[in-house]
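Today's session is about reading a structure prediction critically. Students often jump straight to the picture, but the first step is always the sequence itself: look for stretches that repeat, for charged clusters, for runs of hydrophobic residues. Only then move on to the predicted structure, which in these notes is written as discrete structure tokens rather than atom positions. Here is the chain we will use throughout the hour.
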Amino acid sequence: MTLVTTTIPTPPGPFTVIARESADGTATVLASGWAPGAAALLETIGPARLAGAGVAGIDPRTIEQRDDLGPITQALRDYLAGDLHAIDAVAVEQAGAPFTARAWQQLRAIPAGEPRTYAQLAASSGNPSAVRAAGSACGRNTAALFVPCHRVLRTGGDLGGFLYGLDVKRWLLEHEAAPAAVA
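Below is the predicted structure for this chain, in token form.
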């Protein structure tokens, strides 16, 4: 197993991906978000949250820096260019309790440009009364953008929270609502 990382400029700021590369060269996203490098991303999300993926306590100095992560980088570039579905096929690995894992699956099923509420996320995840747990699943998500927790809003349409700031969340929602976005 090789851990690899890249940072790509995006309109709301630098976006970093940490992935596990297998022997055949395919890569699976373990962590991603708006941070200027692997060390900053790990500090933001807390490296212990990657324990379920078998990489707790990662030393960012041991992660191989790359300019490009192949299909992951291309999916991000295509998303930024308007192909909002490009990120859907990127493999992601996260470990969580059963409800949290279901919520992450449901987040990936929310279409771009069609935000849901925390209550809707709870219901689609199998427990309509677990609204706070749905919010917690969003907060525990280590693979921002690829598991699009930014697509969840408070009842009434308020943005709620987002680990990388409401300006980034707002930009993402506006990008996904843009009429020029590729369907």
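Discussion point for the tutorial: Helices lie at 38-45, 71-80, 98-109, 118-124, 131-140, 166-177.
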